[in-house]
Predict the 3D structure of the following.
Amino acid sequence: MRRFFEILGSSLNLTWQEFKSHKVRTLLSLSGVAFGIFCIISVLATVDSLEYAVQNDIKALGTNTVYIDKWEYAEGGDSPWWKYMKRPEPKYEEMLLLKKKVRSAANVAFNISASNNKLEYGDDVITGVNYYGITEEFVNIQPVEIQLGRFLQPADFDYGSNVVVMGYTVAETLFGNAERAVGKQVKMKGGKRALVVGLIKKQGKSIVGGWDYDNSLLMPLGFMKQMVREKYSSPIIMVQGKETVPMAQLRDELAGAMRSIRKLKPTQEDNFALNDIDAFSSFASNIFGGINLGGWAIAILSLIVGMFSVANIMFVTVRERTPQIGLKKAIGARSSTILTEFLMESAFLCIMGGILGLSVVFLLTLLSKSVVGFTVFIAPHILILAVTICIIVGILAGIIPASIAAKMDPVVAIRSK
């Protein structure tokens, strides 16, 4: 063990001396490794961070939840949209029937929405506000955190009261200070007036869309139906299964219940979509896996170039140190010691290139939030992967030059110039 650390210290010293003696040559040679590590780490870190953000947003859509719609959420670009367009929209009455028929359901809710609406308070007008008309169990599936005031009460749903819960960005834009919104009366679509009874805590932007609460108003379904037609307001039925019920069982019950409600014959296809949030999550994971493969392809090409650059340095180094190698072997140094020393030096050179690439990635992560809209972080397993790759590339790059050095005849090596 002591011998190993002596070789390690000697290799570190020789690597540092090589860098000080030939700074430009070494930096240019390491640029390939640095770029390869930069590609791998930047792609992996970005994709991991993006996937983390997306999966969190998907989970926010509801755990153990199925969205009944006419559209398939996880379909690709070749989906038969023309077939889905002909499907009937989910109806409020269907939601009521599902509550009675599906025993596996813990919560069933109905939601309609309208985007890009105006909102007025006095002489102030803002646009781009989303309206969500919801039923009572919506909040059990989609928890809404209230910062000030209250959420919608059962009586509000029963009577379709003209009350709303306001998103933070909407309140801040319209009133300057978001907390001033509670208790104010605002004018909505079609001149309808509503009382703001609650302020939703600021959520931040969602990558997958989802429920953009910051730019939204939540209101009882009955009140929203006074302003829009249910059929043309993207109606959705949301069903959350009981904790002990497997998703497959919930889907089977929902499929049977929906076919019964819509009186479909055994030979007829489903005219509805059961969008499983867990399946949507798996679909997103597959997409990110493909992006990772693309990043690896670019990085491998860069690392191959970097490996040849480091190998070139090692060939030159072996040639310059031939007399020293001969002297070491003459005084008793083993071939394995010479081999290990040069392999370690090659690995250290690659690690230096990797550190250079990692430094650039780290600097870019500091700017990530303002540039890409989400925080990019470098996970510990990615750092371990980077170091491992540098060591492997270093060993591969140095194996031939190190073998040549280890096999040298000490007499011939000492006499060389």
In short: The mean pLDDT is 81. Strands lie at 65-69, 105-121, 124-134, 146-149, 163-166, 185-187, 193-200, 216-220, 236-241, 273-276.
